[in-house]
Amino acid sequence: MADKEESKTSEYPEVTSGAGGWSPEIGDPVDPRADKRTAPAPREPVVVPVKQGGGVTRGLFWLVATIGLVIALVLGAKTIGLFPGLTNPFAEQQTDRSGPALLKSVQDLNQFVAAEGNFQVIVDVQKDRKYIPDFLLNERILFVAAGSVEVYVDFASIGQGAVKESEDRRTAEINLPAPQLRPVRIDNDHSYVFEEERGIFNRIGDAFSSDPNRLQEVYKLAEQKIGDAAKDAGLQKRAEDNTRKMLQQFLAALGYTSVTVNFPAP
């Protein structure tokens, strides 16, 4: 009997279980509902949102960083003299689009510049309002002005009979006009604003409007002060002495032994 049962079971194929799985024996009842309960549910795909524009921002950042690195390397190599022949591609360039100068007129000058005075003056101008604090409304400027004044004698104004000479051409007497002061000439290369104070309201006004002639008044005041100083500096007396000496040496070379140069009394 045992041999018959063994022969029956040998007719069925051998069933192997999976790794860690359950292998049913022949004859065990199979419950299909149990398989449904134990079967894992399929997973839903996970969608990860991707931010738009991230690549553009990173690209822009690296572009700016690369340009900054190139500028730093070029300026650094130029500063330490690593490449003497290297020119700075980021150097400042100045373009002059001014037109040519036009000749308006020509005037012959018969003037002898006999003396010149160089001056320097500090112009301190302040504009404020009464009962208003200076930090609100105030304008003050310290301007260091350098200028010069020339003193000349106008030979073109010598009239008839201004020059008298002896018959033997050995003695001469010349009557000349008084020396004159030329207009003050400000030296822009040596003139500068030393300090400037402006109130809050003044600075706010500057943000909305600009005054290109703001320093014109300061320049005019500097010219006036230098001109007054030139009148009191004795330049005219020095010009008379230099003119007299020049004419005496010039006429002495022509054979005159006595030369007298007269100027009007001050």
Kindly describe this structure:
This protein is 32% helix and 22% strand. Strands 1, 2, 5, 6 and 7 form a 5-stranded antiparallel beta sheet that branches. A 3-stranded mixed beta sheet has the order 3-4-8, covered by helices on one side. The protein has a domain of 152 residues. The termini are far apart. The protein has 266 residues and is an alpha+beta fold.
Question: Care to give the gist of this entry?
Answer:
The protein has helices at 2-9, 32-38, 54-80, 200-208, 216-231, 235-253; strands at 111-128, 138-154, 163-165, 171-175, 180-181, 185-186, 192-198, 258-262.
Q: Approximately how much beta-strand content do the residues carry?
A: 15-25%
Radius of gyration: 51 Å
**What's the average pLDDT?**
76
**What's the tally of helices?**
6
